Fold each of these.
Amino acid sequence: MQKECEDHSPADPRSPDGMRYCDPSGECRALIGLIHWESSLDGPIGAANHCDADDRPSVRLDRDAVRDILQRCVSGQLNVLELPRWAEAVHMLDCVEIDEVDRDVLTQCLFEVSTPELFEPITVDVCRRWIRRMEEA
């Protein structure tokens, strides 16, 4: 059974009745949806920012989730030009935790991908390089 999160705007667009829902542990589904980039970024980023301001349990970001996002950008399932926006949103959330073993590579990936003006424009080739780097790390 899912419980209603406290009333925040914007509502999670995935909910049929317009309300956001937490999973049984209290994690905000918007955060989980953003981590896995399950829909358009507009709703989940706004909702995740509201959850981040609340005292909610942290959501874990791991190498597999980031690699999946990168592979979906390579395949064209996700818009590679939106990747910096996703990376910045995830990187800036306090409630996103990264395992110690993945911290260096994922933090570096999120930082570089979220700031293409400092590093390089985001392309499918950049995604492929990060996928290889994660497999080697």
Note: The CA atoms of residues 113 and 121 lie 8 Å apart.
Amino acid sequence: MSSLPTVIPSTATDIAYEWLRNFVSKLPWNEEANLSENQVAEESGTSRTAAREALLRLDAIGIIRRVPNRGAQVPALSIADVRTMMETRLVIEEWAVRKCALSGTGSNALTALTKQQKEVSADPIAFMKFDLEFHKLIVHSANNPTLERVYCSQRDQQLRLGINALSHSVSRAEQVVEEHKTIMRCILAGDADGAALATRRHLESTNRAFLQKTQVEEPLLTGAGSRRLATTPLPAPAVGVERTTLRTALVQVASPDTETKAERITRVSGMLDALNDVDLVVLPELWNTGYFHFDHYQEDAEPLSGPTVAMCAAFARSHGCYVHMGSFVERTAEGLIRNTSVLLDRAGSIAHRYSKIHLFGNGSEETEVLTPGDELTIAQLPFARFTSTTCFDLRFPGLWDQIGKRGAELVIVPAAWPKARLDHWNMFSQVRAAESELILVACNASGVQRGEELGGNSRIIGPNGEIVATAGSGEEPLYASIDLQLIDDRRNAFPVLNDRLTNYDNLKED
């Protein structure tokens, strides 16, 4: 399967070769070492002949350099060497994993390798050897012997780098296993785009671990450490439901009276660009205009092709993530003005749209300017059935009853909820998640608008009503991971939705 097999020592040469591999892999990446045949023979417990043959084998693949009459030298690696290896991995592995996902080959073996790798996580050398086999199997399954030879020619040097990175962090091994599982799940689901993106993220993560270990500031991959590594937009996967973990950022935005809409869009664009390693970004209600700036609604209204959607779509494409852009004042083709929220997929295309149904009229001018929405749609995303509501909608159980009946599993709620009623914000968000056993992501605005202080405290609520994460009151991002498998786990363990009546209107009165 590869030109660099993991050798099961059976001959003296194999034993010497395996000793050499272990020696080289543990050597710091930027240090060189000199080895003699006598030293290799003595340390490996073999003969000079076996040592010589083992050295010749490593020399043939460029791991060491033979020095006449002196033995061999293990050269130090430069940043340029490392960059070349990482770029080669990126090109070959991303291509190979797409083919692997489309063909479905190798999935059972990948599952076994991931399990074995987890079992040896305390042993860096054994762990990295399973790591090599995991990635080599993907490349091998793509069935291109030429690319496989190129790929395998540098894997022993990557073993050296990987062990160096593992030695710096006790949690790196666990993180690698989880990243491998994500790649594997995408392959099993036949999700080529998802598998390529998961592989790209895994290499970014490997790159960051190496940089942290070496304290080298120069990135090894263009855009490493951010989602800008993706130069070609990845479309949203078009396969069935694939439960995964969404790395999420809820961005609490303040909309001060002194800032214009254009200035705020530019400022928020900078806030988004500062986000790293996210699958989903969520913004609050009417952040670009400011909810309480009712006199700006008409002039700030824009179509779906306007600057707010355009900015968020560009970010989604460049970072390869989903963006729920909160809501904005939409001017429809019919001339109506609505409070509309939009979910953009990884290609920057509209995956879901919702116009606020319950407009707030208690001391608010929203009902005087805007037209309420009249649709509730459920979008089948690759990872969940999705819908959205907005702020005041949280208070109306009839709407949420329909959300449950229509099978929603993930609901995003952008809001401009005042601090004065923050206790209701906390209560309703937990109740709505628990009663329909879904995950609720609620992103609130912060700051002061026209003398009204917004509450912040954006939150993610699990399907049991548990608080997964919550933010403070100021303008800030809230980072959290959303485990979508919790939806199935909760509904299987406590299938309360099966006992819900289809109609409560027929209940008898006394």
Note: DSSP finds 17 helices and 17 strands in the chain.
Amino acid sequence: MLAKTTDGSTYIYIKDLSLVDEVRAIVQQVPGIEMIYTSADIIKWHIDPEATLLLKRKTVFSLQMKLVVVEPTDEKELGQSDRYKAVHDSDRIK
């Protein structure tokens, strides 16, 4: 999953689409979110067809998405962007 924030909106990109409902449920709890748009809305508006969700913030809030993503990584991916060997106790992260 990747989040990019621009001009008061945050685009969420989810590779594993089986996680969309779970991510949406988590994001709905974030204070300051006015609306969560789906990929169908995003495509209809010709914005970014690769985005899974689009978050619109309330006017008085600033969105700063800080999420922890833990996923299996193949050894040959190590060293690529955002692919590192864990050096912390990852068993505590759920």
Note: The beta strands are 2-6, 9-13, 33-38, 53-57.
Amino acid sequence: MKNGLVYITLSDDKMHFLYRRDRNADPLMLSTTVQSDDDIPRMVVQFASDNDIELDRAVVAMDGRHCMLRNYAMPIQRRRQLDQAVQFEMDDDIPFESNEIISDHFRGGLSDGISYVSAVVVRKDQLADLLSLFETQGVEVESLDVDVAAFARACLTQATGGEPCVGLDIGRERTLFCHIVEGTVRQLGIIPWGESRLVRDFAAKHGLPEDEVDRIMVLPERDAGENGQGMQDSFREHLEGFVDRLMREVYRLLGSAEWPAHFILSGEIVRAYGFKECFEGVAESRLDIWDESYFKLGGEVDTGQRGSGLATAYGVAEDSGCRFNLRKGEFAGNTHASVQVKQLWYATCLLILMFLSWGIYSYASMIAGERELAYLEEATAQVYRDSLPGVSDGMATVQYRSILSSRMAMLTGEQVDGGTMSVSVIEALRAISSVLDRKIHVEFFSLSLDGKRIGLQGETRSMNEVEGVRKAFEKTKIFEDVKIKNAIVEKRTNKIRFEIEVTR
């Protein structure tokens, strides 16, 4: 079974099923129209079963048309005082008794000492009916949001900078509205009409079925001749009237707020012929289409990846941003109990893991100590082998130490094997350096020595410089015999690589 969290969006008479096994997976798997609420759990469970998804918990966003929305701007900053003020205002605004409703609110933004608050109210009987649809199918609703808040979260992912922005999800029977300023939500709203108003008006004027109007909206070029051109011109007039009416609604919702410099649109109507140009001409603002921003060319999962409610479906799965939580009060009992059981289970598992970890740590420490000792012995031997490349690899550490001490004594002129050297190797090299011509450029690579001989390997620019090095050895009067054993030209560097052997 595939495990993960399912996000279900109910909006504009559509149901969107969004599943994420992880945050990088292609999430949306189903987007379809529903005829009645009773069809929702059956379709969800059937689709989950067909796709081998273990469906036992879900996050749900309900249709905002079944709720009451309110927006407040209050000169209050402290959270507790703000909550009390909002509750007081809602008691006056809502025509229901407090025991009949569930409400929630969030502060979308704070500017110049003003808190911008959006609130939602839903009747308990409606909430109970919705939750029971899922509970009867064994699906736990972990949280319950509203589609317009989820749509605002989707728009927040597209809004950039601090410019005022308005998001519109133009559905068939409703239009979701959100006002964003400086990356925070200032206002939410639902316009109680959508694309169907344009379709019905145009169909009534020309005596056409609504399905035919839907086709003309997207594929006007199929109508040829004068009648076809007249139909396109008429549709353009209706479209301009629709957009102009929509802009008046936006102006009414904004009130005294600054006109937005940026619009984010979603919905099937945005694909209508000439819609973008018409909207930009009326709004005189920058326009982004959410579907086109989110889905790259060829990135659609299925044919349900366009249309109203889609941005909302993705907004439900957004972790950050404004949200409502209607699983409160008497409807939060199962969730709270589940959380307590989970916390107790996690605590028990944690204690068991702690004891197991202590035992494993003690045993591992003992094993690690033995391994570390063996590792150190091997590392020490390797250091000796690297320092004494000409010595057999099979010697014990004490033998390596004795040989290395003898070699060090040779360098300082100390007594070795019963004999005393009159001049140390280091002193000899210092004498060579003092008599070596400063114009000679020489680089020594290696030094090998025994009781009477020193072997040097180096590199110069010419044979003359090699000879100069040899003469410098002779000038020291320390060495009995100085021989150039080998001198060859390096093809890669064009320098002379040589080897000199001197006898003490």
Note: The radius of gyration is 42 Å.
